[in-house]
Structure formats: structure tokens, C-alpha cells
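pls read this protein.

:::
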Amino acid sequence: MKNIILILSLLVVTVVLSSCIVAAPAAVAAVGVGAGMAHNDRTTGTIVEDNAIEMRASRALRDNPALKEDARIKTISYNNNVLLIGQVPDEHRATEIEDLIAKVDKVNKVYNELDITEKKSFMTRSSDSWITTKAKAQAFSGSEVDPLRIKVITESGTVYLMGIVTREEADIATENVRKISGVQRVVRAFEYTD
């Protein structure tokens, strides 16, 4: 652990001293990934694979524009499980998108949480961002649940929780998130260690 922190600190100092504008975002990302990995049950390879799955899923949707017509879709991968959120015009479109994403290389499971409705407004999306921020800042303070082990995503007032946790940690996180103003519903997409 100390070696990781030392290496990451040296990386940041090197970037700052060299004043390299191009390398700075990469260094900050490396520090974030390194710090997050210290508290994450996923391997480095799985974290990289989750990012690759999200890119492949986005590409699959982009390559099939008919599926995105009148739709707003977001794909989130955690431990090779994909959460689909957003809005689609009908159930048929939601099923087509789920089937497409299920065929993406390395995807184990798809949680289809697409809403059959019109695209949400910018104001709704801004409110969702605020709920996510509050959940990350408030929901885990004072509890034994490590917030770096749980991914929090909000869509239309519904908060989705993903991670690899114990059932007790899942219950604590769920109850803490439910108490946040603006949260209408909490959906758990956890993998359990017990």
C-alpha cells in the first residue's frame, strides 16, 4: 500500500515539475485509479475490462443508429456486468438494446433498467447529478461501508448501486441512500461476497 502511494506521489510530482499539460490528465487519472484500487475488490484487469466494455457497448449503439433514435442510453459496466439506463420509446426498442449489449464481448450479465418514456430534460439530468453527488458525499459517512467499493448512478431520481460487497454492506448503503432528499427509488445491482 505504501509503495502504491509513493509511486503515485512521485508520478504527480514528476508531472507538476515538468509542467507537461498533455500528461497531467493521464497522471491525475492514474492517481485516481491507483487510489481507488486500494479499496476495490476488482482486479486491475477487470477495471480496465469494464472501461473497454463501456466503449464497446457505446460503439455497438453508435453503429446501429436506429436503436438510439428517440432514445437516450447510458451503459455502465462493473465487474463485467452492464447496467443499461436511460429512456427509450417502447419495450421492443429496450429489448433490442439489451440483446445487442448482451452480445458485447466479455459481458456477463445485463441489468436492463431502461425507462419506456420520452428523453429526460436537462433539468432532470442535473438533479440526478446532484443526487449522485450527495449520495457519494453523505450516504457512506459514519458507516463501515467503503464508498470506493460502490458505484453510484442516478437516473430520473432512481439511484443504482453496483459493487462487490457483503449483504450487510449492501443493506447499510441502500438505507443510507434512501434517506437522501430527491431519491425516489434505490435499485441494487450488487455481487455479494457472502
Notes: The two ends are 25 Å apart (CA to CA). The first strand starts at residue 72 and ends at 78. The chain is about 50% helix and 25% strand. The longest helix spans residues 44-62.
